[in-house]
Amino acid sequence: MYTIDLNQLTPQQFLNEYWQKKPLLIRQGISNFEDPISPDEFAGLAMEEQIESRLVWQKDGEWQAEHGPFEDYSHLGDKDWSLLIQGVDHWDEQVAELIRPFRFLPNWRIDDVMVSYATPGGGVGPHVDNYDVFIIQGSGKRHWQVGSNTELKEVVANSALLHVEKFTPIIDVELLPGDILYIPPGFPHQGVAIEPSMSFSVGFRTTAKSHLFSNFADYLIDQQLGSDMVVDPERQPTTTPGLIDSNDIDKLKSALHEMLSDDDKILDYLGNSLSQCKHELAIDPDLQDMSMDQLSEFLQDDESLLIRIGGLRCMYFDQESMLGRLYVNGESYVFSQQQHAVTQLLANNSELGAQQLQTFAQDDDFKIQLLQLINLGYWYWQE
Ligand code: SIN
Ligand code: CO
After folding, report:
1. pLDDT(161) > 90
2. Cα angle for residues 173, 177, 180 (degrees, 5° grid)
3. Among 19, 68, 164, 266, who pairs with 152 as Cys (CB 3.0-4.6 Å)?
4. What's the CA gap between 70 and 52, in Å, rounded?
5. Which CATH number fits the domain that encloses residue 82?
6. Does a structural domain hold residue 280?
7. Ligand 2 centroid to 185 CA: how many Å?
8. Cis peptide before 69, with omega less than 30 degrees from 0?
9. Residue 271 lies inside a defined structural domain of this protein
């Protein structure tokens, strides 16, 4: 289990002073750090079709990027390239554990753990990201530079990389295993491996405002809501047919406002939308056929642990109308209002001991819902 020391700042102090504001170097944020995944296991993941991997290297001074899967790296030699994989927390339990020390941030803000392996000289070049990231240095050393967030010109050296022009560093350091660099959105940065090295980026992403609207529109269409037309039985004749007059503008704006002011719809939309996965889930079909009897046995066994699979997004609201609703992977699961406490347990903890669920162990409705979630492959039991 990883614990983090944020330069002796409390989470509150870190959020006040640095979060979304300025970068922070945290020497030995995780002491005695060991890679949760070896470079060999990591290369194995890059062979999988459904895993998002990328190779980045330079050829004759030009940046090159290619998407996986990859089998072989021998043509790249032993320097100046790096292999990056998104969403490794979905595929490796130990990597998913890296999120645990950051649970002072809510589930909906978590993006993924991106892992990179770089040979000496390897990196992805100077760039900005639109997410907050904690870059945890694993084995090996990497040289990192972070610039200030003043306007930077984008230089699209390769359309996949979104590079920026050279910047003056405000942080210029060599990271050693267990060191952490926090970089808020908009701060240019670049890491170059000094020796073969692993790095683990715990990323947090919000959403573009335009996506909030477009996803809301998708939600309305999916739920067959808002299909009633804007009507105008009180229309008056016009002598300026080319004009959209202020009455009409008000009417159209109030139709938009009306949709946005329905709190239950907005919450349901947010729950559905924010709980959608960013990367494919690693569902194990062998764990999808639990019987009710087996579930009851696990619930009665104090030693057993109920584990949420890596990357599964799970959340709830505490508004009266939402009590008992659990949003998981883009869907809502309705427990009874009395079972609100169990939705909190499932969403707030990535693993739960059976005894934490004891109060509900005899409740058939709860067990039916939990069995459904288990047989969807979202949670599994470990003895
Ligand atoms: C890397 O690990 O090489 C890139 C991470 C980043 O800059 O976001
Ligand atoms: Co970056």
Report:
1. no
2. 55
3. 164
4. 11
5. 2.60.120.650
6. no
7. 9
8. yes
9. no
Average pLDDT of span 61-89: 94
Average pLDDT over residues 257-282: 95
| C-alpha 50 to ligand 1 mean position (Å) | 21
Provide the domain count of the chain: 3
Q: How far is the CA of 143 from the centre of ligand 1 (A)?
A: 11
Torsion, Cα of 329, 334, 340, 344 (10° steps): -10
Res. 60 pLDDT band, cuts 50 70 90: confident
Pocket of ligand 1, beta carbon within 6 A: 82, 116, 118, 123-124, 129, 133, 135, 189, 191, 199, 201
What average pLDDT does the chain have? 95
What is the predicted pLDDT for the residue at 160?
Answer: 66
Q: How far is the CA of 115 from the centre of ligand 1 (A)?
A: 8
- How far apart are the C-alpha atoms of 19 and 24, rounded to whole Å? 9
**pLDDT(181) > 90:** yes
Query: Closest-lying ligand to the alpha carbon of 134?
Result: 1
pLDDT of residue 257: 95
Q: Which of 52, 113, 114 to mutate to test the pocket of ligand 1 (most atoms within 8 A of CB)?
A: 114
Helices (H) and strands (E) in the chain, counts: 9, 19
* Domain contains 363: yes
